[in-house]
Automatic annotation (TrEMBL):
Stretch list, region Disordered: 200-292
Biased composition (Pro residues): 203-215, 222-242
Name under which the protein is recorded: CYTH domain-containing protein
Bias-annotated ranges (Basic residues): 283-292
Domain of life of the source: Bacteria
Amino acid sequence: MTLVRRFQVAPALVRLIRKERGSSRITEGYFPPQSGRTSFVRVDGGQCHLVLVTSDNGAASEERTEVPRAHGDALLDVCAGRAAYDRTQVALGNGRDAVIDRYVAPGTVDVVSVVFDTPDEAGGFPVPPWFGPEVSTDPAYEGRSIALQGVPQPGEIGLSNAALDAVLDLIEPRYGFGRYAAPSRNGDEGGVVNALRRIATPQPEPTPPPPPEPEPVQAHEPAPPPPAEAAPEPAPPAPAPEAHPDTRIDDVIESLSQALGAAVPGGEAARDDGTPAFERWTVRPRRTQPTP
């Protein structure tokens, strides 16, 4: 046996939660009610179940039997009434989950439900600030009544700053890491969650910046003189021109000529045939300039 507590919830908060967490479409077809029992067929995606609910003093027990999808579609055609809603499951903390049902047929209404195992758990449940008025004792918000009699008219549900802030805390841990957005870069605030948080949180009045302090006047130092240019190094002296080899040969020949002439007494001696005994060598002129 389980206990269910139901609450109204503001449509804007449901829209924000569904945008970040997604939802799944469920269709239920209800048969005419019987004493203490409710039977209906539920189609959830590719699964189809025939459900029998027995109620006793506010507690309910549920039995499910899986049936083929074709049989489920046939049962939906003979049901007395249908209801279709988009369901989103959220974690409230401490191992407790809540389901948000946005009914889209036969009308529009938003209901959040929490299931408990014992009356003590149901009585000690701390109601989150984003929950609206409780409708646990109003049968108009049960799935059977909505399918057979239509949706109730809850009227306008107030949206407080505490409710919006609680929803942002609920979805912010996953925001930016699921399939709807990427992690923000460089720690910049962006996206619908941070924008709503800035709207929900009052911002302090901006304080004007202090006037800038005057910069101290600094004396201009004279520029250092440019470095003196180094004097060019003197060019090495050109090597003395080497004496042409022909000049040395001329000196040797002239010295030999003088020595040989001095060795003959009386200068040039005459032979018996009248020719001089010694003929002085003819010295060719000295070439002081190299030949081209």
